[in-house]
Write a structure and sequence with these properties.
The chain is of the alpha+beta class. It has a five-stranded mixed sheet with strand order 1-5-2-4-3, covered by helices on one side. The longest helix is centred in the N-terminal third of the chain and has 15 residues. The relative contact order is 0.29.
Amino acid sequence: MAEIINSNHKSPDEFYKSLHEKLTDHHNFPEEYLYKFIIPSDSGKITEILKVFDGLKFTFSNRESKNGNYTACTIQCFVLDADQVINIYKKVAEIEGVVML
């Protein structure tokens, strides 16, 4: 299960409910949404993340940490609504070792 940075929520369901409210209040969907993840430097992990976005319109960039242990991934994806944003986060959360920012 992925780690969620700065989460003060007791459960994943509580986190996603709060996120849904914030997305609905602060975004005008459909729009481009920016996802950021940190993963162990492993091309297999990048492939797993990219599979989540398969079939969607997105751009991908990544940058390896100074010592090469971790990779920061940024994905800008066109999404239709808050539910789609959350569904993508939930799929990425299933990938071991991912930190969601």
